[in-house]
């Protein structure tokens, strides 16, 4: 056992740690939620992690994204995340996919090769495609619902999509899942009503004002949400915990 995992093994046992070392997890979206999920998976001892994102770190990511620092601004998120994972666990096999999950890129992924799929993307279309592809391949999947415009980390919950409430994104996903015959979907969501931002987003044009990938593709500029340092990571850590527990049968 690697020394960095000794305290985890005290709780989970050697057999569980061996399962985690052999497990292969893919995480779509390396933002405030997805980045924290990858971090926790790496620190738990997951031995194979694929990470998927085509975004770069921007200054406005620094307030909440675990890979975002002044020195990483302008660099690809998957590149920075991979370096961080390898620094945590040099034995972890990290594979980077510098792309968004879209119809044009969907054939790059064989979902049957993954033990778990983590959906931390921010568009409904991509989420639904991921859920359908994972479930058709028999791969367990967990999806993140909305964490923007929220301040209460204790309101983060885990449940089936049809058990969710309050969250506007979850409401849309429930409707769309029903239409597609998706009977079950484990999600992490917040029961806190979304706040209305007290200030409008910056008026300046360009990536500093509207960082790539930080809002749903259909959203208008005025819909750019606010976010804080303590809610998205809690959702990401919660997702990772669910993945680990499911992988070891806890």
Describe the protein in words.
The protein has helices at 6-12, 14-22, 32-44, 77-88, 124-137, 168-179, 232-248, and strands at 24-28, 48-52, 93-97, 116-119, 141-144, 156-160, 186-190. Helix content is 34%, strand content 13%. The protein has seven helices and seven strands. It has a single domain (3-248), classed as NAD(P)-binding Rossmann-like Domain (Rossmann fold). The protein has 250 residues and is α/β, with parallel strands linked by helices. Strand 2, helix 4 and strand 3 form a beta-alpha-beta unit. Helix 3 (32-44) packs parallel to helix 4. The longest helix is centred in the last third of the chain and has 17 residues, at 232-248.
Tell me which CATH architecture applies here: 3-Layer(aba) Sandwich
Most strands sheet: 7 strands, mixed
Query: What coarse outline follows from CA principal-axis ratios?
Result: globular
Number of domains: 1
| Helix proportion range | 25-40%
| Structural class based on helices, strands and sheet pairing | alpha/beta
Mind telling me the C-alpha Rg?
A: 17 Å
SSE pattern: HHEHEHEEHEEHEH
Q: Name the poorly predicted regions.
A: 204-222
Order the strands across the largest sheet as they lie in space.
Answer: 3-2-1-4-5-7-6
Terminal-residue CA separation: 20 Å
Write a concise keyword list for the protein shown above.
alpha/beta; Rossmann fold; 7-stranded mixed β-sheet; 7 strands; globular
Short overview:
This protein has 250 residues and is of the alpha/beta class. 34% of the residues lie in helices and 13% in strands. The chain has one domain (3-248): Rossmann fold (3-Layer(aba) Sandwich).
């Amino acid at each position: 056992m690697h020394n960095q995992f000794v305290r985890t093994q005290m709780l989970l046992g050697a057999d569980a740690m061996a399962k985690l070392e052999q497990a292969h997890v893919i995480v779509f979206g390396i933002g405030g939620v997805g980045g924290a999920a990858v971090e926790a998976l790496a620190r738990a001892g997951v031995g194979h992690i694929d990470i998927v994102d085509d975004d770069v770190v921007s200054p406005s990511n620094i307030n909440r994204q675990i890979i975002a620092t002044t020195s990483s601004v302008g660099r690809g998120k998957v590149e920075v995340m991979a370096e961080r994972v390898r620094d945590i666990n040099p034995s972890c096999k990290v594979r980077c996919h510098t792309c968004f999950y879209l119809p044009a890129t969907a054939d790059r992924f064989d979902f049957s090769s993954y033990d778990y799929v983590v959906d931390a993307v921010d568009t409904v279309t991509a989420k639904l495609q991921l859920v359908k592809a994972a479930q058709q391949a028999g791969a367990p999947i967990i999806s993140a619902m909305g964490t923007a415009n929220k301040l209460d980390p204790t309101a983060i919950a885990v449940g089936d999509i049809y058990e969710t409430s309050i969250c506007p994104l979850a409401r849309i996903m429930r409707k769309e899942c029903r239409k597609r015959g998706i009977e079950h979907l484990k999600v992490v969501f917040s029961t806190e009503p979304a706040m209305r931002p007290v200030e409008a987003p910056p008026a300046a044009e360009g990536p500093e004002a509207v960082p790539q990938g930080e809002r749903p593709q259909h959203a208008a500029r005025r819909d750019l949400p606010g976010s804080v340092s303590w809610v998205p990571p809690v959702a990401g850590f919660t997702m990772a915990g669910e993945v680990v527990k499911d992988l070891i049968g806890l």
